[in-house]
Design brief:
The structure holds two protein chains of two kinds. By secondary structure, chain A is an alpha/beta fold. Chain A contains ten helices and eight strands. In chain A, α2 packs across α3, α4 runs parallel beside α5 and α8 packs across α9. The longest helix of chain A has 17 residues. The chains are: A alpha/beta, B alpha/beta. The structure holds guanosine-5'-triphosphate (2 copies) and magnesium ion (2 copies).
Chain lengths: 273, 290
């Protein structure tokens, strides 16, 4: 089969369409899937390997996490409702505890029913400690209180859990901006990292989510959850393409150990036949 | 946005003596991309495109001075038809009637249980809530708090399995004279065979008059597989779409309708217990078209 440009295609038309369908059904996006396949076919000896390489090159280069030389590492966790923030914090806290670091978690979701109770279970399982205030307290106040305590008592890691919110809720996005500001007020170099948790089964709405959250909270990394499910997380390609944010971890289950570092090559391979 | 893109095409086609198949195919290509962008599953998109093509090749487009507009209307009607389904009230004919809620982790089941309870209390029903989620930390506490907020009884089912807990809760609801028992379950992935077996057992154990899939409106292409698998497991009678306030296009709704034929009954429009509305097919069709 010949394609414009004169190179010979390694795959049949039907095989290329199947690959494109696969990318679409993995939530890579209709337009992006078409462009990726089109570009790969035009390269000399258009092949799955060429496609794989162009997809891997779309993933942001892995920069080291912004770990401070001294004082606590402060991590703010944000994202839309139900994506897996609280559970992910349990997993991250466990990981740091296993490295011998002390961890303090701030329960800044003061709104949702049993949010603090849920986090308390994870914090206990991780062997970490928690700061909480009364129900309905100002989340910024909890964040401030947590950072202050974390610094004063020399914790290695401070993690702030926040309430889920949709990016279209002006009031809640303002609240998040305030939480971030207050964290910096409590400790000028904080937050060192702001990670947005994205559900691996989300469709193209994830683009707007990341866009708005980044604007408001200064997102510096992503965690993609529920990749143990039917979602292949192809949205990651779309997010990498548009925002270049590093994907720090992926969630692959509901238990403390179900957290893995993001492996770009393995991820791209999973999207291709 | 689809309506803008189609507006351009409609403009180009205005006053054309007839719409060529080439023009129509160009229009369908734009529509296809817009539907995929709105998270409509690929097989459903294909089905819709062939249906639109068939109707568009008919007389009405050829005669029209605004063929582009006619094509848009054909698509809008196809969406609304697919989403329309038969509009009927929840089946609450048994005493107690059990409403089973199932779905993926974090979809909004527990919050929806509270919302549904509030709605039915407002309709004069005596409602109780129960949860058989023994996995998620503080899951049952979460529902208990919501029960308090909407002023309904929380029933603590007993047993060593979700099915046993469910059965005991139904018995208790009967003894306490409730019209309706809303049964919240743990979130699960459709690829988790053990948990899909569990939800089958729970459904079989309680003879629910309504078996509702709670689905996050921002779900992508896998909404199709999710709907199919839950339908096969519990024979869904309806679906509730949550988090529609996230300005999602909501193509997942079409995937549910197309694959199961099951009607979408309600939509969640926010985090509070009163953020709950009856599903409006015309409005949803408009959102998907952008
Ligand atoms: N299968 C699977 N489930 C997950 C994963 N991560 C989180 N969950 C589940 O997703 C559900 C929601 O998790 P939460 O941690 O409560 O999510 P959240 O973002 O804190 O939710 P809100 O605070 O309500 O916005 C829970 O049932 C978790 O067990 C994952 O990687 N895989
Ligand atoms: N914005 C918005 N948030 C919602 C809506 N419905 C539920 N939520 C939120 O979504 C998050 C998850 O809701 P839950 O009720 O805990 O979800 P779940 O399906 O019971 O989760 P699991 O039990 O872990 O599977 C919570 O933060 C809810 O407040 C909605 O319609 N809009
Ligand atoms: Mg949470
Ligand atoms: Mg729940």
């Amino acid at each position: 089969q010949l394609v414009p440009g004169g190179s010979v295609d390694a795959l049949s038309e039907e095989e290329w369409l199947d690959i494109e369908d696969g990318l679409i059904m993995a939530d890579c996006g209709g337009e992006l899937a078409g462009e990726l396949v089109h570009k790969a076919r035009k390269r000399r000896g258009g092949s799955v390997q060429a496609l794989k390489e162009s997809m891997i090159s779309m993933l942001p280069e892995v920069k080291a996490v912004n770990m401070p030389e001294s004082g606590p590492f402060v991590l703010l966790v944000v994202g839309v409702n139900g994506t897996g923030k609280t559970t992910t914090i349990g997993k991250i806290a466990t990981m740091f505890r296993q490295q011998g670091r002390s961890v303090l978690v701030g329960a800044a979701d003061t709104f949702r029913a049993a949010a603090v109770e849920q986090l308390a279970v994870w914090v206990e399982r991780a062997g970490a400690e928690m700061v909480r205030q009364h129900e309905g307290a100002d989340p910024a106040a909890v964040a401030f209180d947590t950072i202050q305590r974390g610094v004063a008592r020399n914790y290695d890691v401070v993690i702030i859990d926040t309430a889920g919110r949709v990016q279209t809720d002006r009031g809640l996005m303002d609240e998040l901006a305030k939480v971030r500001r207050v964290i910096t007020k409590a400790y000028p170099e904080a937050p060192h990292e702001v990670w947005q948790v994205v559900d691996g089964g989300t469709g193209q709405n994830a683009v707007m989510q990341v866009d708005k959250f980044r604007e408001v909270a200064g997102t510096s990394g992503l965690v993609v959850t529920k990749l143990d499910g039917s979602g292949k997380g192809g949205i990651v390609l779309q997010l990498s393409h548009r925002f270049g944010l590093p994907i720090r971890y992926v969630g692959v289950g509901e238990s403390l150990e179900d957290l893995m570092a993001f492996d770009g090559e393995a991820f791209v391979t999973s999207l291709l036949p | 946005r689809l309506s803008e893109k189609l507006g351009d095409i409609a403009h180009k086609l205005r006053g054309a003596a007839r719409v060529s198949e080439a023009d129509l195919d160009a229009t369908l290509r734009e529509m296809r991309l817009a539907l995929l962008e709105a998270d409509v599953a690929l097989p459903v998109t294909r089905h819709l495109m062939s249906e639109v093509r068939e109707r568009a090749l008919g007389a009405e487009v050829a005669k029209s001075l605004q063929p582009g507009q006619v094509i848009i209307k054909i698509l809008n009607d196809a969406l609304a038809d697919l989403l329309g389904g038969q509009r009927r009230d929840l089946d609450l004919s048994k005493i107690p009637s059990v409403i089973l809620l199932c779905g993926l982790q974090g979809a909004g089941k527990t919050t929806t249980a509270g919302k549904l309870a509030r709605l039915l209390v407002g309709q004069g029903k005596k409602v109780a809530l129960t949860s058989v989620d023994a996995t998620r930390p503080a899951a049952r506490e979460q529902l208990q708090v919501l029960a308090g907020q909407v002023d309904v009884q929380y029933i603590a089912g007993e047993g060593h399995s979700a099915a046993a807990m469910a059965r005991s809760a139904v018995k208790q609801a009967g003894r306490d004279g409730h019209h309706v028992l809303i049964l919240d379950t743990a979130g699960r992935q459709v690829v988790d065979d053990e948990l899909m077996r569990e939800i089958r057992e729970v459904a079989a154990a309680v003879g629910a008059t309504e078996r509702l899939l709670v689905l996050d409106a921002m779900t992508g292409q896998t909404a199709l597989q999710i709907a199919e698998q839950f339908h096969s497991a519990v024979n869904m009678s309806g679906c509730i779409l949550t988090k529609t306030d996230a300005d999602v296009r909501g193509g997942a709704a079409l995937s549910v309708a197309h694959s199961t034929g099951v009607p979408i009954r309600y939509v969640g429009t926010g985090e509070k217990v009163d953020a709950f509305e009856l599903f409006d097919p015309q409005r949803m069709a408009g959102r998907i078209l952008g």
